[in-house]
Amino acid sequence: MAAIIEDGRASVETLSERVGLSPTPVRNRIKRLERDGIIKGYTAVVDLAACGLSLTLYAFVRLRSMDLGLTQEFERQIQLTPEVRTCHMVTGSYSHIMVMQLEDIADYNSYLRERLSKLPGVASIQTQVVIDTIKDKIQIPQ
What we know:
- The protein is built from five helices and four strands.
- By secondary structure, it is of the alpha+beta class.
């Protein structure tokens, strides 16, 4: 699994060399992982700053209530929001934590005032700005 996480574009032959197996069992394992939904897809790692999205923020959102209809509508709106990279419903004093990518702080100011604060049920928002990324890598513990 670690070999395919490291390089999702590697050929079956390359992966088989890395893990010390012949290509057939490696190919079968990959197919099984895909079929079982463990491998959900393959993506490219993109330099977001090079694409003009140099500001990463964490927004901690508290909804007015956890009413099912309100929560579902908020989450539906988040699904449609390209600025939100990741959104998690969490325990604790906030209901949701979102990771967002934007151009700059002025872009976030507009987004906050015109869109995020107007989403259904939003009671409060606290934002943390990322100043440096120390680690951004998926690893499977051995």
